Amino acid sequence: MSNPPTAQETLPPAPKGGRKPLLRPIHRSGADAHSLPEVFSSVRVAPDHAQWFQRFLAFVGPGYMVAVGYMDPGNWATDLQGGAQFGYTLLSVIMISNLMAILLQALAARLGIVTGRDLAQACRDHFPPAVTLVLWLTCEIAIIACDLAEVIGTAVALQLLFHIPLLFGALISAFDALIVLFLMNRGFRYLEAFIIALLTIIALCFSVQLLAAAPPFGAMMAGFLPRPEIVTNPAMLYIAIGIIGATVMPHNLYLHSSIVQTRAYPRTEPGKREALRWATLDSTIALMLALFINAAILIVSAAAFHNTGHQDVAEIEDAYRLLSPILGMGIASTLFAVALLAAGTNSTVTGTLAGQIVMEGFLHLTLPHWARRLITRGLAILPVVVVTALYGDHGVGTLLIFSQVVLSLQLPFAVIPLVMFVGDRRKMGSFAIRPAMKALSWSVAGIILMLNFKLLYDTIMS
Fold this sequence. Notes:
By secondary structure, the chain is an all-alpha fold.
């Protein structure tokens, strides 16, 4: 994997008055093009003499954009079903998958900051064309599966809040490309602010629902301890792998390795080390928020449905209908739907960027944002239309769960190249991960592979 020329190009002399010129991205084409060239190195960082908090704030944002993928509508379906059927048992799966996510996202940020290449570009640089094509196709499948969850989530939220039929809600969701276009034209910080604002709404909605659910503290904490039955019980394992697929998302690794490069940090060894430190802290804090929200969904579902005769609740609509009467709080269902709409909207924004990064990185093919989004969204809308026509609204919930399992099956195709690259000193130099971290990273990749093979075996045998 050959690195492109350094992003810190020679700039004209500083103007009088002592003000240093800002780093300006040099837009390239072809193999040396920067990832997301329109926003590459466009966000200022605080000067060296600034307080540490000011320097950290300059790097806050990409982690929250990545965290969006860990609390999208696909998570809701698996968390709701897991809580209703198995109580608090699968909280341990949410915690473990979130820890995996923190590690993998830190590796993705390392790759982007050190090499100046996103994961898609790195794969194209390293692998032969045939392998690159396979990796691109699997990633596109993952993005379509993720987009499918976003379509369903947004359409269901619009139906619950405004009584819009699912089919029309799915069609309305196709126009979210306008949000991305508008915000990207204003600047990348505006896009990040929009994402963080919606994440705040989601967190507030579930904080209120947690207070209303009042789960038993002992049972809830016991759920964070892993149990063997999660692997031995096929029904529980299916939901558990769906949770992992909904939590550790393949396209997030491509996304994170790209958007960390939007900061105008010096492309020197000290500058990269500082950028890596702040970017890792940013994503770790943001993913802890994702852990809280995912755990909150499962806890509310377990407290409301598991012991109240509603263990068969598997669909978002059923949860919406039952939450207010069971929790005894009239606004609970409305807060649930508002949070779902915010999650769906957020996911569509970051999905747009991930799709652009993957297509440009693997194929060097650039499409307008609106065209790329409409193509991907059209492929996601088609299954929703077919399933709704054949099985009605209730079939959509099963489709949502299935999309998360598909995501989980695509994970190795992103995780294995990522761990390969960040552990290779020829590509990473002194930034290559150490043997202990490499062993841990390969262990995570191995766990994901084993769970996927187990799922395939159970599916074939059944």
